[in-house]
From TrEMBL:
<keyword id="KW-0675">Receptor</keyword>
<feature type="transmembrane region" description="Helical">
    <location>
        <begin position="182"/>
        <end position="201"/>
    </location>
</feature>
<keyword id="KW-1003">Cell membrane</keyword>
<keyword id="KW-0812">Transmembrane</keyword>
<feature type="transmembrane region" description="Helical">
    <location>
        <begin position="374"/>
        <end position="397"/>
    </location>
</feature>
<dbReference type="InterPro" id="IPR052192">
    <property type="entry name" value="Insect_Ionotropic_Sensory_Rcpt"/>
</dbReference>
<dbReference type="GO" id="GO:0005886">
    <property type="term" value="C:plasma membrane"/>
</dbReference>
<keyword id="KW-1133">Transmembrane helix</keyword>
<keyword id="KW-0472">Membrane</keyword>
<protein>
    <recommendedName>
        <fullName>Ionotropic glutamate receptor C-terminal domain-containing protein</fullName>
    </recommendedName>
</protein>
<keyword id="KW-0325">Glycoprotein</keyword>
<feature type="transmembrane region" description="Helical">
    <location>
        <begin position="118"/>
        <end position="143"/>
    </location>
</feature>
Amino acid sequence: MHGAPIRTITDNLAPRSMVTEDPITGEKKWIGFVANLLNNFIEKVNATLAMQSELAEVEGTIFFVNISKWTANDLLDIGMSVDTTGEMTNFDTFTYPYLMCSYCFMVPLPDKIPYNEVYGVIIDPGVLALIFLIFCAFSVLLIHIQGRSLSLTSVLMNDMCLRGFLCLPFPFPRQCSRKLKLMCLLLCFASLMTTTMYGAYLKAFLYSPPPQPMMHSFSDLEGSQYKIAMIAEMDMLRFDNNRILPHVSNERVEIFKDYHEFVRLRESFNNNYVFPVTSVRWGTYDERQKLLFNPVFYYSDEICLSRDNILSFPIRRHLPYRNLFEEHILRQKEFGLLQHWIDHSFLDMLRLQLTPHTDLREPPVELAIDVDDLYWILGLYALALGICCCCFALEILGALNHWNRLKIYISKRFTN
């Protein structure tokens, strides 16, 4: 092209296009997985990059939707940005798809469950039912081997099984058969397995409590404490009439008119909001979270605005080198340069100081276990002690009644 200019403009959204200086000439240049492809094409065809900065002063804010509009109006040749084309029918002003990604929400990680709920979390109904069935089977077999009468009370209140499953000592019969010895051995093994399992669960959960359930739908977002941060240009992205947010009230959504303010809030990791983000941009956030004391957000593949977001370069109509540019896009992708640029996006942002490399937040405070965290388990323990005391009192009263009857019977015999 003999140095002919290619008019373009960038939205300076990292990591797509980031401004830096050439260490040799000192001139401005742009890097990123979008800017690099356009720079390589300009170098390939021997053209010149002509940045149309005056459009921002005349037309207003630089936003990728505005860049697509300026390109469609022949004010630009190729925009240094990408726009979604998933719902379009006319592709005269867009190239061959450059990138496909999802557009979902980054959601704050749920808090850990409080310590007073740990004892309830380790109790799984299915496991308890299985242990109860094993207990009943052992009890029935022991009663049958010992030749005792079978009843519901003897099965459920089998002293040997109760002590065995609680890993407590129980009196062993002096003279017993091999079957009874085998049953006692199996009972000891089962008690060892159950007590070890629940002991390990309890110690692990008390050391590091598991998180609360994650959100999986927009209905979960509606019932949560978080607000959904959206930008005012979402209607320009053909997501109008709130149809992308089913089961979400307008009070739950907070609209930001300034896109850069929205990006700054998202980059601050404010865990009071839920932010929409592309999977490519989330990759840099995820790498940044590895430098934090604890991760703050996770990328939800279930709460999405678009799971298949097709991104293309905006170009003007009747661009004479359109086919050459689209061939260049395919070749760069085939050689893996696109994935290479995306993988190194976070390192480029660190080098250009576009993202912090330290955690400016205070380290999390390690909370100790208080007595209040154990109130309900202590209450159950007190209730069990009360039941035991009542049973013991009933046994004593029953023994006294038998003793009184014996004394009355003896006195009658002697008087007669």
